[in-house]
Amino acid sequence: MKSLRVLDPEGVERRQRRRLKRRRYVTPGPNFLWHVDGWDKLAPFGFFFHSAVDGFSRRILWLEVGSTNKNLRVIASNYLNALLQLGGVPRRMRCDRGTENTIIGTLQQFFRWHDDDHFSGSGSFIEGKSTGNQRIEAWWSTFREGGGGWWINFFKDLHDCGLYHDDYLVTECLRFFLFPILHHDLYLVEELWNTHNIQRQQRLEEESGKPDVMFFTPEIYGTHHYLVNVNIDDVNMCKDSGVKLIESRAILTMACLSESTTASSEEEKKEQRLIDVMFLCDEWKSSKGGLSTFNREFAINLAETTTGSLKIHCYVSQSDDRDREDAKQHGVNLINAETVPGSRDPLDWLKIPHPTLQHPQVVIGHGRKLGTPACHFVRTTRCKWIQFVHVFCEDLGKYKKTTSAATDTMEENEEKHKMEIELCKAADAVVAVGSRLQQKYSRSLLNVKVEIITPGIFEKFSSESKLAVNRSVVKKFNLFMFGRATFEDLSLKGYDIVANAIGSLGKNFELTFVGSPPGEHQNVEQWFLNNTRINRNQLTIRGYCSEQEELKMMFYQSDLVALPSRTEGFGLVPLEAISAGVPILVSGESGIAEALQEVEGGKAVIVESDEDADEWAQRIREIFEESVEEREANAMKLRENYRKAFSWRTECERFKAMIERLMQKEHADDEVNITTGGSEYYCESGKKRKLTATENLRQKCNTQMIADKSVADSVEGLIGAYLISCGYLGALRFMKFLWLKLLPEVDSDDGIDSLAENSKSGCYARFWPDQTNVTATQGKGDMVSRLTSGLENFENKAISYNFQQKLYLVEALTHASYHENRVTPSYERLEFLGDALLDFLVTQHLYFRRVNLSPGQLTDIRQALVNNNIFATLAVKHDYHKFLKHMSPKWLQTVKNFLERVEDEVEERKHNRPQTVTADPFIIVSEEEEEGIEAPKVLGDIFESVAGAIFLDSGMDLTKTWGVYYRMMKPYIDHYSVNIPRNPIRHVYEEDERADFGKAKTLDDGKIQCTLRVHWGEFNGKGTNMKIAKATAAKLAIERLEKKSLQEHSAVYEED
Length: 1056
Known about the structure:
It is built from 41 helices and 28 strands. The protein has 1056 residues and is α/β, with parallel strands linked by helices. The protein folds into 6 domains: 25-233, Nucleotidyltransferase, domain 5 (2-Layer Sandwich); 275-453, Rossmann fold; 459-646, 3-Layer(aba) Sandwich (Rossmann fold), CATH 3.40.50.2000; 719-757, no CATH class; 787-981, Orthogonal Bundle (Ribonuclease iii, N-terminal Endonuclease Domain, Chain A), CATH 1.10.1520.10; 998-1054, Double Stranded RNA Binding Domain (2-Layer Sandwich). It has a 7-stranded parallel β-sheet with strand order 10-9-8-11-12-13-14, sandwiched between helices. It starts with a helix and ends with a helix.
């Protein structure tokens, strides 16, 4: 060909002009374009086939056989059944110019006529030559090569053998016998085709995979569904109306093309433009408080604020006629879920869409309980999902109690927190109730923007004037607390704090607690009397209040409403009390306290100490000493100021804008061209033009696809290059250039831009000068002295570093269970800092000191050094555990078991492997018991928290921090740099690709046992969970393999 171009260029050019150019088929996603056509190869024998294929996924939407293709009702029913099954219509549809397809085109335009996108109305239907309907034509060709060709030969053989005559009776008999067989055959063909794997073709740039996967999960291929929602009632009307309506195509077409001027038509258009928003909740009334109260108020206010743009539905598991009438009066459509056979959990019923609203555009879930039904709902209806979060479970676990000694509430709530995070990551948007939860979830959800909704005033409590209470007769001061008196929440909610405060104030002060479970009044009263200083004469116990009017009356009876929770996501009861014009006091560890910080006069009702009953008593006495008129005036003023700061209208308008952004994002790619030509589009100054063939070829040749990870790795490499060349401050400023704003704005001529200053490890400490100012000791000198007593031994013997600010060390060694420390928080924040510090310092040391190792080897060494097992072992070796301040007997036993196992490991290594260090980076195993044990996490945590404390105390000096920890970690760094460790499970698979970890089983003592089978034997591993059991079995197998290899080498040596 190259020679011909040289010898006869003109002839080659002439021949190329007559050559058929292959064009490229492009469609952006599933349900953007359906291809519909019939197949009449068996028409001479009385069998007519009809099918539709999705253009993007090549999935068969229907494949039917009938006795005619002239009956429009039969053809239309295939199309309508597909719409009912999928819940919508495709963006566009393409058919041949056959009479059997005209009714489908008319229906498609009818359903798409009132939409406002580029392909709505008549643009939604394409009618042309069969050569342009390539997807369905290609499918019929494939079908003929397979099962269709067999049926053609079958009928030809019948005809050739004289068994078939073109007779009405013979044809009907054949249909009677063969229709069931053909239907079953076509069903199998459809199933096989939709689940087979379409291979990628080298010359064609189109997606490959299984049609079902491509159709139902387009997100894998970087696209989304283009299905357009349709009114199911319209589809059923067309299906049930019979031949008369469907065959009146002219009437139906005129109905589509005519512009209706009646008021009813305008209302229908307006209704179609509304966005259907569905709230999921277990009830409409607020009998359970908390979540249901918020859900109801938010739905009502959203309906009132967004009339004309959103249509609000509330999908509940149970409701009555009063609930539905009440919701209707507030503009909310209340839908009661249908019961699911075999399930007694009402929340399971919410997972199934209701027939009256099968396809909402937005569904709203709440927390774990209502987030899971929302997830099921989204998978069924493919709508948008907004997830609300109301609590932060890890905080709850610190204070919740349990009746079972075997239950670890912190671990249990950590698992709940993980479930919350999983739901948030799966949702399209996350909304926190109040700024406190927004801050906490923003840290847990990386690269996810957490929106915020702050509840406004509850008008049902403030709409009526407050009922008068004769304060001249009532002499005693009555404080009310509301909640649920479950055993696990009594400490969490801080009821004991206020009870102690009331007890210390004397007989003129009374406490009314509202929230006792039925039949538990005496038990709740006994808990207060046993655990607090309150007297029986000061205490009144009432049952949980589920009626709004009754709750309002209780507010009017109270002199003060308190929320003393040790931690609270938001706290709706104080907001209800504010709405009723009642004085309140709230804990500083609550979400409503964060909101009140922004309200004029709000700080006056916040009690910063969440443990000090004396401070609560003082604040209660101050309110008591105010006159009745002054208290009421302050409460009314607080209500008005809160209304100004947070209004339902403002919050709902912001939420509406968020929903509209979600919907716009869904339709952002709608304007995609689907022509079969090979040219791309070029945009310039808002105008589109097609690229020429030369430009298109040049664009393809000059374009190279780069994976996202490659780009991310390159950016990380650039940051590392700046760190090496320009020092710490230089790297931080480069990250600021990348819009990773880690530093505040500073003057460019501040005189510290020299390379020497940039390379100094503490050069950026000046940006956070307040970090080393500890002001929490005011008025608590005795407590500080007690907390710091004895820590000199830790400084001198364990770490060889003397702290300037002793409270940093106190904080680093304080466990969350140690309530005696009221000066500093627990070690969690310092542990977060120390974890990052040690990871960075170890990485830096390995990079500069081990230049002969590959990146993979460096990663393996860092993984072995920076892990909980090593840190915990080092913490024990240097006596960290002896100085930890805690009040957890269970933890003491855990550490004791770990110490014994470490000592056994040390002795075993001294006898068998004296050249190795005394710690395993992955797991410690007892060969006799075949049981593995993981190091207690708290030991590793305090090892990291002390590193964070040294860093802050030294003025953020990395050199000093690493100097302390390098001395402790040096033996492990040196050993692992020479003997690079491998994960035992990975090691097993490297030695035996057919290694099999059998099915785990639970032993009588509750532990998990796992059996590993490899070619050199069978090994059992035990542990508290499956992960430890597998690692134990793997390590035992590797140790046996090493011993076996050593014995073989010894035998060979002796023979030599």
